[in-house]
Task: inverse folding
């Protein structure tokens, strides 16, 4: 079984980048996608991130999220179409003549644009964050976050949360097998999915809650609260780092300037 | 090193104290063994000695614990104490945080301000010591239970603390791995003068290097002995036959066998399971290679092997959880590649190691009904009562399953499966995490089921159980069966120091 959101041991240009510059770039991308409302800029950003993943040979990882993201986008666009009316009407969800002469549920350009922006935001944020996580060792990520003085408790929380993803996946699988061995057959489709929730979710949550304490204690025992690292091999900046941060910064400046004008 | 004076402790919400009036002195360089039944307060004592109770958990304390001349509560949090104490917990999974074994071990080292060459040296040394060098780049969460425990131990050993506390840290390791840990600890004690505290319900493996054995009972120290006064390793205690027999209601074999063939293997029987040239792989790792095996009705089989040798992978084929990559498995003539799982589970009941992975209902009764409903036998109230009585939980019908003790939960898991009356019952490590008394109960239960005509297959690394109960032993190594010994032949291969009468087929 493939794990999602886990470090992938490879040697791509993204892996060689300084975790700090990656964090900076991702923070920049997230900030930009929240602040900007221009679908074109967003599209460029998503494309840029995807190209980066292509170069690093990690596009498969991003594409695995596609199903979820497309589902999310469609929902968001439908939601805005239903709730938001601004700008010229492009068409009707229910064409004129079928129920009423004038057509029902008008689709406006403003709603469509806004729906697109919302969707692209998710694409940009999720892709960028995922690339950061899968190309940076959790221990390097921790080091980088601690270097920029993120409080140690938050760093620990973040790493523990990441750590729980594959655990939950593996454990979910085990629980699923254990229930299958009891002849459990939830069926397929939506009904099956809903029926399967209780026998899988309850053991999963109960086990995870029991696990957090040991995990926290272990991190304490390994001394994360009083580091005295000598940092001999200080994380180094290379050209790629400067390019990435520069690129995002440039876009930021662009957005601010166009916003002012 | 550590002085405990009149120490009592009650968990925040508990009514009764978990530890009562503990007086104990652990001098530097001692190797102390702490043992006792489940719920005797062993883990709580370990947490207290590590300072975790005072620093992290809280609750109400009486008396004092002095660590290196200073009250343990006065240290500056676990961050200061962790320089002196290393602790390995029983749940290995939760102690592995990172994405590779190497990173896991490095994580602690990098926080201690060692030089880079020193870090590298220690990493290599500790991986060599714990025999995990070949796992260096593997993801910890993808390892087997025993391997995980090795990595968790290695990560703690790497920190090189003066005091080392192991709480059931070897429970899932195979015999060889435990021997390895034994020699590592022996060296740490003799050459480096470390203070080591081993907390385990079964300290037999470590008696030889132990200085003292503390026996806990109901939160009190019952006695402190010298290891010499205890039966030495290799001389197993007699299984507690009489006691457990009384607790399990007696059914005469005929009563329950109406729908099952009589026990007693006839050589020309049709095999219940027939495995032919079975191979299986996970990504690039080859888990099983061309395995051939036949299991006949009424057999009591133990499958042995080192951690990661393919035992669990093999038994998951018996009820179709895994489909053969190549080769074939048939259960009562049904091809597992074709037949749906919910059909196969009527014939093969598989009980996993961790009962907590299946318990989700609000009552014990509902938990068993779940399986029965799934196979369309929901109305069979008698099956529930009977299964619960068999496992000795007859009076717990309405109890919330997760409130049961570990041993009870394990037996409930077995009840869930046997209620469905499969001919073959497969148990993956059924005694792991159980104390001697609970293990015996579990084994008596297996005997009982065999007498009622079920076929039993157990995956285990507990040699004691194998020697006492199994009639046929299958040994696996790197995905292959390397030994398959039956009945009389078993006598020659099994350890020679066991009395004739106790070996193989204690059930018969």
Result:
């Amino acid at each position: 079984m493939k794990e999602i959101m886990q470090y992938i041991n490879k040697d791509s240009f993204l892996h060689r980048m300084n975790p700090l510059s990656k964090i900076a770039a991702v923070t920049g991308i997230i900030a930009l996608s929240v602040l900007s409302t221009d679908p074109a800029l967003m599209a460029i950003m998503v494309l840029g991130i995807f190209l980066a993943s292509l170069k690093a040979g990690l596009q498969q990882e991003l594409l695995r999220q596609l199903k979820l993201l497309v589902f999310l986008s469609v929902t968001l666009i439908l939601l805005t179409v239903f709730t938001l009316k601004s700008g010229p009407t492009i068409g009707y969800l229910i064409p004129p003549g079928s129920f009423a002469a004038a057509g029902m549920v008008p689709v406006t350009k403003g709603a469509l644009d806004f729906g697109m922006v919302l969707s692209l935001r998710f694409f940009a944020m999720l892709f960028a964050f995922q690339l950061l996580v899968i190309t940076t060792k959790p221990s390097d990520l921790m080091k980088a976050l601690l270097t920029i003085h993120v409080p140690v408790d938050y760093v620990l929380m973040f790493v523990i949360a990441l750590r729980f993803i594959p655990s939950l996946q593996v454990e979910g699988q085990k629980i699923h097998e254990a229930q299958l061995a009891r002849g459990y057959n939830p069926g397929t489709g939506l009904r099956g999915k809903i029926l399967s929730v209780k026998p899988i979710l309850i053991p999963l949550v109960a086990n995870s809650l029991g696990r957090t304490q040991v995990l926290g204690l272990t991190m304490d025992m390994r001394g994360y609260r009083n580091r005295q690292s000598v940092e001999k091999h200080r994380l180094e900046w290379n050209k790629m780092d400067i390019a990435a941060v520069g690129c995002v910064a440039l876009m930021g400046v662009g957005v601010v300037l166009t916003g002012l004008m | 090193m550590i002085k405990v004076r009149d120490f009592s402790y009650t968990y925040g919400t508990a009514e009764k104290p978990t530890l009562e009036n503990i007086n104990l002195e652990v001098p530097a360089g001692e190797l102390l063994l702490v043992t006792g039944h489940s719920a005797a307060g062993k883990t709580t004592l370990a947490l207290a000695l590590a300072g975790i109770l005072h620093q992290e958990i809280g609750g109400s304390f009486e008396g004092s614990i002095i660590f290196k001349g200073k009250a343990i509560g006065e240290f500056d949090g676990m961050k200061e104490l962790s320089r002196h104490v290393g602790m390995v917990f029983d749940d290995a999974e939760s102690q592995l945080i990172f994405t590779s074994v190497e990173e896991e071990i490095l994580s602690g080292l990098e926080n201690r301000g060692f030089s880079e060459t020193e870090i590298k040296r220690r990493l290599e040394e500790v991986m060599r010591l714990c025999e995990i060098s070949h796992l260096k780049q593997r993801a910890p969460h993808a390892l087997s239970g025993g391997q995980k425990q090795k990595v968790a131990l290695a990560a703690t050993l790497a920190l090189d603390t003066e005091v080392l506390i192991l709480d059931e840290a070897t429970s899932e390791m195979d015999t060889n791995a435990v021997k390895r840990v034994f020699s590592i600890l022996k060296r740490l004690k003799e050459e480096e003068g470390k203070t080591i505290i081993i907390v385990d319900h079964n300290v037999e493996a470590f008696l030889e290097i132990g200085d003292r054995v503390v026996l806990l009972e109901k939160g009190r120290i019952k006695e402190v002995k010298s290891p010499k006064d205890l039966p030495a390793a290799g001389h197993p205690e007699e299984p507690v036959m009489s006691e457990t027999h009384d607790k399990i209601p007696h059914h005469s074999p005929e009563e329950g066998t109406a729908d099952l063939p009589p026990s007693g293997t006839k050589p020309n029987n049709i095999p219940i399971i027939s495995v032919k040239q079975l191979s299986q792989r996970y990504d690039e790792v080859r888990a099983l290679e061309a395995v051939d095996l036949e299991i006949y009705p009424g057999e009591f089989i133990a499958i042995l092997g080192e951690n990661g040798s393919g035992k669990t992978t093999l038994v998951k084929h018996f009820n179709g959880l895994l489909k053969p990559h190549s080769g074939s498995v048939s259960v009562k003539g049904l091809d597992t590649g074709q037949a749906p799982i919910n059909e196969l589970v009527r014939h093969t009941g598989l009980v996993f190691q961790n009962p907590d992975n299946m318990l989700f209902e609000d009552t014990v009764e509902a938990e068993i009904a779940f399986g029965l409903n799934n196979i369309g036998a929901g109305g069979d109230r008698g099956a529930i009562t009977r299964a619960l009585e068999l496992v000795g939980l007859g009076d717990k019908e309405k109890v919330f399953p997760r409130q049961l003790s570990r041993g009870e939960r394990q037996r409930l898991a077995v009840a869930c499966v046997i209620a469905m009356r499969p001919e073959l019952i497969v148990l993956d490590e059924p005694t792991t995490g159980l104390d001697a008394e609970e293990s015996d109960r579990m084994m008596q239960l297996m005997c009982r089921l065999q007498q009622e005509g079920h076929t039993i297959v157990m995956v285990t690394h507990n040699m004691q159980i194998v020697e006492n109960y199994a009639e046929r032993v299958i040994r696996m190594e790197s995905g292959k069966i390397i030994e398959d010994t039956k009945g009389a032949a078993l006598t020659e291969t099994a350890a020679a120091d066991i009395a004739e009468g106790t070996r193989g087929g204690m059930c018969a």
Notes: Chain A is about 70% helix and 5% strand.
